[in-house]
UniProtKB/TrEMBL annotation:
This is Uncharacterized protein LOC111496453 isoform X1. The gene is LOC111496453. InterPro entries: Tmem135.
């Protein structure tokens, strides 16, 4: 069969890409020959060689398509798994409460069937969101690499793919805002960018303050000042789920929070004070509140002393915190360290129980110290107002020092994201921020910028990731390609591509 057979069969363009010399280069997607070969002068068996090349090219193309499918499936699994797990805990937590409301014959109570239906929809949406994000990123990464060359586009390909994959967040709902998630991902991107800056010769001196050992605790203090102040003064600025979490672990009834809010704002209400007195009577304590009192201690803990209240709250708070952290430590131990459990079960379980005890102590000290600092600040200054509440709750963040170092930055960034959202919500409601800055889907824009940074660091600055996060990214998206062609001895002739 002559080379002309390739042309006659419609493969002229492909035959023109057949190169003599070195083998096919996986990095740039082209042959490693020194120049374009004239296929008309090739011997008769060149078409057989081309056939083999074409088969290998098809295998490579099918491998790329398979990578896209696998990434989409893994992304869907992570999204559906995380959201489904959270929904399951939410369903179980609200089951008893819904039964009680239904037994009272209250109208408008959401049934268990409705809750399960909504949970399934949310699980599917989040699965599609992360599955589409992963598939879109890998697709764009492969398309750009094939069209313009992997080596040539290495510095910006992942950045572009990450940004273009960001709008997949819209699959969670066109009218569903995800400001908290977007800000948290932005915080993660900022941390990665800061780590890149620290090791950079150009920006290293600017980013040096970020290496401060206790920077995570300082961030937690800043976050606490906004979050805990909003918990007392403006709960609607916090995400509903986070507000519910604080209501549980804050350990105070709604009537106490409402009375404290009016007192701190300088507008004590006799009706709210009577409601607080009624609440304490139901609890077996005879409490009398004076509209002219200077400190809120009686509102917070009734007839108890400040020290006695802190100690009692610490014990009760620890009991509330244990069920929160027990699955956080034990479930990963059963999944991630399942092989180690067979060899050294006591060591892994002991480590999980120790982590549970330590984190539970942190949360209980954090909440109890918030009330302690509020009482102490009010007694020191003989008054209480919004700035003093912000100061007292700032000091509550020092409790983060109880946690181990590796978890501090995670917790501080988690709280900082919620603090930033709450702060801007408060500023907007007070009229300090123009409405023009309130973009309808600012969360998608922030998320896209953040994912662009994160995926760029994943492809180009892998050492700034912790191994556990890097392993997850590698599992979903696939390990980035080997070094460029000019770093591989067998590909010296590929630079021209």
């Amino acid at each position: 069969m002559s080379p002309g057979g390739c042309i006659e069969n419609g493969d002229a363009e492909a035959a023109g890409n057949c190169k003599s010399g070195d083998s096919y280069c996986e990095h740039c997607g082209r042959g490693c020959g020194s120049g374009s070969a004239d296929y008309s002068s090739l011997p008769a068996f060149s078409c057989s060689s081309y056939s083999l090349w074409l088969d290998s090219a098809r295998l490579r193309e099918s491998g790329k398509f398979w990578r896209i499918l696998v990434a989409s499936a893994k992304g869907f699994t992570i999204g559906a798994g995380l959201k489904g797990g959270l929904s399951l805990f939410s369903i179980l937590a609200g089951l008893k409460r819904r039964k009680a409301l239904a037994s009272l014959g209250k109208k408008g109570v959401i049934t268990n069937r409705d809750v399960i239906s909504m949970a399934l929809k949310e699980t599917l949406r989040y699965g599609l969101f992360l599955g589409t994000f992963a598939g879109t990123f890998v697709s764009i990464d492969e398309i750009i690499g094939n069209l313009a060359g992997h080596r040539r586009t290495a510095r910006w390909r992942a950045l572009s793919a990450g940004a273009l994959a960001g709008p997949s967040m819209l699959l969670t709902g066109l009218n569903t805002q995800h400001k908290t998630l977007a800000i948290y991902i932005f915080m993660r991107a900022a941390v990665l960018a800061a780590r890149c800056g620290i090791k950079s010769k150009r920006f290293g001196h600017i980013c040096k303050p970020l290496t401060w050992s206790y920077g995570d605790i300082f961030l937690m203090c800043l976050s606490s000042s906004q979050i805990l102040s909003a918990y007392v003064l403006k709960q609607d600025s916090l995400p509903p789920s986070f507000s519910s979490f604080l209501n549980i672990h804050g350990g105070k009834d709604t009537v106490i929070l409402e009375g404290l809010k009016s007192f701190v704002s300088g507008m004590p209400s006799s009706n709210k004070f009577k409601a607080i007195e009624k609440y304490y009577r139901a609890m077996g304590a005879d409490v009398k509140l004076d509209l002219q009192m200077k400190t809120p201690c009686t509102i917070i803990h009734g007839n108890q002393s400040c020290g006695g209240h802190v100690l009692n709250f610490l014990i009760q708070g620890y009991k509330r915190a244990l069920p929160v952290y027990l699955p956080v430590y034990l479930v990963p131990a059963l999944i991630v360290h399942r092989e180690g459990l067979m060899n050294r079960p006591y060591e892994i379980l002991a480590r999980g129980l120790l982590g549970t005890a330590r984190s539970s102590l942190f949360l209980s000290v954090y909440c109890s110290s918030a009330w302690m600092w509020t009482c102490l600040t009010a007694r020191t200054f003989k008054k209480i107002n919004i700035p003093l509440v912000a100061l007292a709750t700032f000091l509550a963040g020092l409790a983060l020092a109880i946690e181990k170092k590796s978890r501090r930055i995670e917790i501080s960034l988690y709280c900082l994201a919620r603090g930033i959202e709450s702060f801007f919500s408060c500023m907007t409601d007070l009229g300090y921020l123009p409405q023009s800055l309130n973009f309808k889907r600012a969360d998608v824009i922030i998320f896209s910028i953040s994912t662009a940074i994160i995926m760029h660091c994943y492809a180009q600055e892998r050492e700034v990731f912790r191994s556990k996060y890097l392993n997850v990214l590698d599992w979903v998206f696939g390990v980035p390609p080997p070094p460029p062609c000019d770093e591989t001895p067998s590909c010296k002739n590929c630079k021209q591509h």
